Amino acid sequence: MIYIIIPVHNRKYYTQGCLDCLEQQTYRDFTTIVVDDGSTDGTVAMIDTYFPDVIVLRGDGNLWWTKAINMGVQYALDCTANSAADVVLTLNDDLAFGPNYLASIMASYEANKPCLIGSAVVDITNPDYLEYAGVSCNYFTAKWIRTSTIFKSSYQQLAAKHAIVPTDDLPGRGTIIPLNVFEAVGLYDEQNFPHYMADVELSVRARRKGYRLFVSVGSVIHNYTDATRNKKQSWQSFLKGFFSFKSPNYLRSRYAFAVRHAPLKQLYFLLDLGRMTTGFLLNR
Questions:
Q1: Per-residue pLDDT reduced to its tens digit, 8-41
Q2: Which residue ranges does the record assign to the Glycosyltransferase 2-like domain (predicted)?
Q3: What does the domain layout of the chain look like in residue ranges?
Q4: Which pLDDT value is given to residue 34?
């Protein structure tokens, strides 16, 4: 059984599109859990009308990503009779995928388990642009290199050569996680990573417990990048992001990750801060 967990908030259009994709899957052994964090745009009514089999868990607008995902994971843990056999699939609602997506990623998982296995992510407006297919991270220098850069490949080139590729971490967009991983390493860390980095951090914890991490290159999801792409920022908004948990630059989360996973904690954090600042300057 796959327990598919999708956190949503006021993006009814994207949520409906994602659920439509799940309705068309050839692989049918799954339960969909939508965690709605206080939407006011009719999302829940839409789900009740068009997707009555979807389980909806309700929040009050203060869950954010990590608490929402944990709510779904806990529901799955409470439901399963065999955490070693069942898995979670974390999805975002701004994703689209073909009817064989679940069959593909589950075949990759079954062939390589025990593991966590993610999806290749491409831009829905430019399917040859490989947005994500794994990363390599240097935990001394805080340098993260995308698989597409390592292999010097577009999505089509990478998919033609590799069924799976190893990765040092995994995001929350299309990742299969055995339920017994949560029993081994705990849930996502709500305190230190309330909105960003909780997905990456949990996958690193799992890897350090001995679970291998892969990306299934043939299991492709298409991302509506306009819904998530960071717009150009002013200096004021960039600096404000250091102190807002709603920003991927939130210093508390970045520092917590360094403390937990970097051999040279302070050096990693300073280099990470430097790379964020350099990236901001290059994108101005």
A1: 999 999 999 999 999 999 999 999 999 999 999 9
A2: 4-128
A3: 2-228, 235-282
A4: 98
Q: Does residue 52 have a cis bond before it (omega within 30 degrees)? A: no
Q: Which two tokens stand for residue 80?
A: 């399963």
Residue ranges of alpha helices (H) inside the chain are: 12-23, 43-50, 64-79, 101-112, 147-151, 155-161, 179-185, 198-208, 225-228, 235-241, 251-261, 265-282
The per-residue DSSP string of 123-135 comes to ETTEEEEEEES-E
Whole-number Å distance between alpha carbons of 269 and 142: 8
Contact 167, 212 (CB under 8 A): no
